[in-house]
What does this fold into?
Amino acid sequence: MTKIAIYPGTFDPITYGHIDVVKKGLKLFNKIIVAVSDVDNKNYLFEIDERIEIVKKALFSDLKLNKKKINVIAFNTLTTDLCKRNKASIILRGLRAASDFEYEFQLAGMNRKLNNSIETVFLMSDVENQIISSKFVKEIVKLKGNIKKFTTKSTIKALERKYV
It folds into this structure.
């Protein structure tokens, strides 16, 4: 049986913390769909098409991950609806710190109420990447700081183009 996981997020931009979750997920699931959210309640730095391209470049060009096992798509629906449409039985979520847990626990519970055939699996990024957040990465690059330890080369280039 093919196990498909949906990994939803804004990925504005993708970081090594996100990438750790994808890599670990590949050990558990046959396919991961990285679902880039395009809901209207966020103030994104990058437009949806830019974020999708940044994620693809980071995963496939910079890191050479397997394109047959990862699909990158946009979505603006309930994650449970996205799972149903893609025959996915797993929602993959990353945890950085204990502070993430309460929100993620509530979100998993709501998703379970919406569709009880979908499980949420939490994975932690490696210790050195647990402190990374897209918000901090954007702030550091905006202030001309070095973000090489936080994201891939192509993502850094995209960020630098935004802040030049």
